[in-house]
Each structure stands twice: as structure tokens, then as C-alpha cells.
Amino acid sequence: MTELQTIPARLEVNGVSKRFPGVLANDKVDFAVAPGEIHALLGENGAGKSTLVKIIYGVLHPDEGSLSWNGEEVSVADPHAARALGIGMVFQHFSLFEAMTVLENVALGMDKPGDMAALARRVREVSEAYGLPLDPDRDVYTLSVGERQRIEIVRCLLQNPKLLIMDEPTSVLTPQEVERLFETLRQLASEGVSILYISHKLAEIKALCDRATILRGGRVVAACDPKAETAKSMAQMMIGAELKTVTRRAGGDLGEARLVVEGLSLASEEVHGTDLKNVSFAVRAGEVFGIAGVAGNGQNELLAALSGERLGDHETVVRIDGAPVGRRDAGARRRQGLCAVPEERNGHAAVPGMTLVENAVLSGHHRMGLVSSLFIRAAAAGRFAGEIVKAFDVRTPGTGAAAGSLSGGNLQKFIVGREILQNPTVLVVSQPTWGVDAGAAATIHQALADLATEGVAVVVISQDLDELLAITDRLAVINVGVLSSAMVTKEASVEEIGLLMGGVHGLDATAEGEEEVHVA
Amino acid sequence: MTFDAVSLVLLTVISAATPLLFAALGELVVEKSGVLNLGVEGMMIVGAVAAFAVASGTGSGSLGVAAGAVAGAALAFIFGVLTLTLAANQVATGLALTIFGLGLSSLIGAGYVGIPVPPLAKLAVPGISDLPLVGPLLFGHDALVYLSIVAVIAVAWFLKKSRAGMILRAVGESDISAHSIGYDVIAVRYRAVLFGGAMAGLGGAFLSLSYTPLWAEGMTAGRGWIALALVVFASWRPWRLLAGAYLFGGVTIAQLYTQSAGGLGIPAQVMSMLPYLATILVLTIIAAGPWKGRLNAPACLGKPFRPST
What mean pLDDT do residues A473-478 have? Predict the structure, then answer.
């Protein structure tokens, strides 16, 4: 930081520390971003990336350390102060207001929006100049996730930022949308805007970024040039260990179809949910079947229809080992051999306020004999919970701990393990590694692979395309409640999958085309 | 019916609607900011007794009205401290506020039962006020009636057109988003809650100084609850709220007439149920209809918010 520089760094972070109860989220973090540089902040979930950028944007305040802006020390009291300096931020979980219009959302993110009609014109101008088409009068809840992100970006651009922070911007985008976003970011960088790009996706960082700072456990562990590194070498810096690779029996012969879904249509119960339309697929014994798609395209409805939370129109729309269960509830389907892990850990897969033992009983009692006619078999339940904790390396003080007290990754291991240890014949998992660190993700992936080897039919619903490409045998794409025909994963191209994820009408990727596809 | 009879009925409808309009309009703003204050009844009656006490003590109706608003806001401030600063449960706190307000008002009002108070001055425009039907309907009222209408216009404009109103809606829509953009969620909600309290207090002041210029224990008689129902009935829109207040006011008056006339064959109890039945009906239709999507209800309604720093 003391070397001679003619131009001072746009942003310099000096020894920033931030402590939350029980965890040191940032520990003396140092790094600097030059003008016009695209700088990656890389790290696993929980490495302290989001905390750090919130400090830069003034949402959180550091316990120690300081920030320098163009060579001068500044204190960023709140986001207004950050914006006044020229810092713009696109949040991972968008800071949008669904019931309000695009224009109102843009105005809310600006300190001096001025006249609304003039602002609407500027929104159109800027959004066109950067290839981010937006209609200012639309209500946000009618927009796709990709369009919502554009609002955040346009909101930042209208304020002529000098530094743009992007927090995990691509986790919700199709590959084509990602490519378009990168073009916009490169254009901005060429205009002298610095970009701080937060991600754990290594391929993207190699493609986009000039420099990378790697965080682990709240500390800077390395800085590198991503173009000179391999994805593997960066991953090892990120997790601080050798990356485990999932091993599968090669080829293998698949058995009979264990799960058959035929002509499943289901109206969503959610206000802005997606109706399932004539979904059909079959998963054979020993097969891992993936369902890809951008969030909100019917994945939750599909999981509910498979698990038995929602019933189908006919008994035959869902069949397990030939037995029609379309009108049976979740308990009956579990007894038939179909176990399911929903996406939401807290409140759907587990009751946060109840202990691990109780949570084990809730889903396990059908298959594990944990309940007699009237009473819970406490000893058996405790043994079952203990087995899950041991087999899946769940870090917890004990099985009496409340599910809500576990970290996301540990709870995820617990709920996946709970279903796997029930020896299902069909397992349906949604977002198995969402918000889970690489080590835990590898454990879960290996468990799913082992399960398939034992002859179980496994369905993985995920928005993480890399994950599906890595662990599935075949996959299909869900878009506005319609499931594409299945393809063999090894032969599928990312472009083809991406186009299916964006909807066939989204081929030319214009705003109008996309809107038709996404607005359900 | 003669013009006089018609205008008399309409006048009583206006009187019955005005306190509902004040209280409901205040609650609408509170709920738009994402806070559910069920203490409207309590704030109204404390406003009523404070207005009555000050008016009879000073002889000034205007001071009385001001006292009503201040008392309502004071009670709302207690609610704000508990639910916004200390993040207590809003439903339980609101219910407690109503019970507290009813008790407090009885205590303060014990010495005022049966004492008369000079009614608020009516607006009189020579010549026009004497016109049949139109005259008394448009000009025969005290300032509070006009204030209530002006307030509807002002709130409608504020929510739709002003930046502060937009921020208030944003806070009610997503407190976390508003916080991360840099708005002080708690401060916005405090202002809304205080406004709601003052408006409920004004509604109470109208009751004890104009509607029936007397103090009687429990004189709000459930109007605070009707006001809460009215906000939902109007699906959080000020102009619909105006229409709803007059509709509910009309039902209240119809109930009085059926009670006295007794000839219509409708039990008075059925009439007093009507505002609530209408609200249940509207809620059911909204929830079941094909337009179920946007009820216009603030997404964060009733959720406590604790910012992290």
C-alpha cells in the first residue's frame, strides 16, 4: 500500500474488522481497487464477503480499520454517504419493492431523483445505452429475476458511480443473461468505473475479472490474477484444502423406472406462483435426474407435487415403482418409498424451534418406526437423530439442539441425511447445496451419488447449473411450469440448456420476448 | 320525504362518518408503513376525553380538538416505543393499548359525566347556508368535517405523489430493502404511528365535542374497530376509504332508525353487524377472486423490524 502510485486507488480497505455475536466476520481485511478495474472478491459462503461489501456501502460499520476513497480516508456513515461518494451497489437479495413500479424503485434508490417524468426518460436512455431494456411503468412483481436485477443496475448507473459493487449477481441468471451482464460490466470498466465483483463462481471470475482477492474465514488469504490461475487452484485457495471430486461408478446399468410422472398439471397456490403444465418424466433406479431452471419457474410447485404436499388430479400422475400415488398425501408416499427435501431449510424442511430429534421424528416416523400407536419412541428417535449427525458430520452441540441454531450448511446436511438414512427408493431434493460451503456440498453430492449407486432414483431440482452438470445422469429444464424433454447430461450443451432456461421465445433475448415468457 | 327530512338524514350520516374517517385514515397511513396498530379504539377514546376535558375547562373548542389530537398521539407514542424501539408484538401491544385507553379515559372522565360543553362552531355562509338541501349539506358543519375531507385529499396526494409518501410505502412494502438502501425504517414508522394516533384522537374529539357534545364512558362504542375494518374494506386506498366511511356511517344511522321505527322488521342487532359483515364479505371476495394477486396490502404489515448495524 505504500508503493509509489501516480493514481491513488479508487477504494482502499485498510485493516477492517467486524465482529458479530460468536463470529469474527472480517479480520483485518486489506485490499484495494484501482480505477477502471474489475476486481473479484472471492470466497465461500460465510467467508465474510457480504459483510465486507456492506461495510463499504455503509449498511454496516466496521469495528476496526478504515476506508480510503481516491487516497483520502473516509467514513461511510450510511448508504446515502456511500452514494454521495460515488459507490453503487447491486444486492444479492435485491433491495426492491415488489408492489411498486420500476420508476419508483429507481427513485427510491437515489438521493436526488428530481422530476419523475424526467427520471423516466433517463431510465429509458440509460437502460438502452447499456443494453438493459426496462419499462419504467411496470410493477416489479410482474418482472423476471433478470429484469429485476436490471433495475438495480440502472438505479446505480443513473448516479454515475465510480465504484459498482455486484454481490453474487449471476446466481439467478441464465447463462445468456450472464453474458449480457458481463458485456455491460466491461463497457462500464472501459469508461473508468471500478467494479467490485463478489462471487464464488470461478469460471466467471476468470472470464471477467482483472484481479482477485480471496477471503477465507473473514481473512484475506491470497490475491491473484484470475486469468493466470486455474479454477482448481483458486478453489483450493478459497477452501484452503484439496477439492474433493465426486466419484461415481462408471456408466453402470440403470434399472426399471422407479418414479414416473405423467401429465402432471397443478395450479399454484402462491400469489405469484407458477402453474405446472403437463409435466412428464421418468427416473430409473440408479439414476440421478436433474431439473434445471431459473428460480420461480415452478420448482417449488413441482417439489410439492412430488412429495405429496399437493395432490394431483389423478392417482396415476405420480407412480412409485408402478404404484399410483397421485392422490396420496406425503405420509403415504413416504411409506411407499418417496422421501423429499424441500428448498427452504428453516420452516419447511425443519421446524427451527424444535430439536434435531424432534425434527428427525417429524419426517422419519413413517419409515423408521419412531412412533408407536400413541407415543414417540424417544430412544429410537434419539438413536436415529444421532446416526444422522454422525453419518453426515453435522456440527452441533448435540441432538437436543434446536434446528434453527445450526448454521445453514450443517442444517442442510442434517435434513438431507435424515431422508437418505430412511432408505428411500426415490429421493427428491431441491437445492441440495444452496448456501452450503464447498466441503459440505461435496459431502452431500457424494451421498446422493452413493444413493444412486445403491439403486435409488434421485431427482435433484437446482438452479445451480454447474451442480447439475456435475452430478446428474440426465436433466430437463423447467420454464414457466413446462418441463422440457430430458437430455443426457454428458451430451447437453450449456448454450442449449441456457436457452431453455430463458424460454424458447427468449432466443433473441429482447426485453419484450422475455417478458412474455417470464410473466406467468 | 321532504327536503328537510332528507337533508336531516344526510347530515346525521356525515356526522356518523366523520369520526370513522379520521381514525381510519390515520390507521391507513400507519398500516401503509407496515405497522398494525389495533389500539385505534383506545386512542380514539383517550382523544375524546382529553378533548372534552380541555374544551370544558378552557371553554375553547379549538383547544379541545388540539388536545384530542395530542392525547391520541401520546398514546400512539407508547405503542411506538413498545413495538418499534423494543420490537414487541404489534397485535398484543395494540390490544393492550385499547384496553389501557378505555380504562384511562374512564379515570380521567369520571368528573366530566353529565357536564355540557359548548358545541363546535358551525360554518355559516349567509345566503347559501339557507338554500334547501344543498345549503345545510355543504355548509352546516363544523371545521372538523371539512378537515376530514381535506385530510383524505392530502393523504391520497401524499401517498401517491410525494417522495416522503413513496418512502413510507417502500418501508411498508419491504423494511429490509428500505434499510439496505439507507432509509431509517424506524423513524418513518414512528412518524406514521404518531400521525395515526393524532388522527384517531381527532376522531374521538369529534365524537365528544360535536357528534354528542357530552362525555360518556365508553362512548366510542366500537368505532375504532369499525375504523380498522374500514381500512381493509378500502383495500388501503384513501378514496375508497372515504366512500367506505360514508357507507359505514350510513349503516350506523340506518341502525338508529330501525331501532326507533322498529317497523322494518330488521332487528337492530343485524344492522350493527353490517359493517363487520361487509368487511368479511369484502375480504372473502378479495381473497377468493381471480384478482387475488395484489390486495394492495403492505407486504410487511405487522412484522417487527430490527436493523443490524
Answer: 93
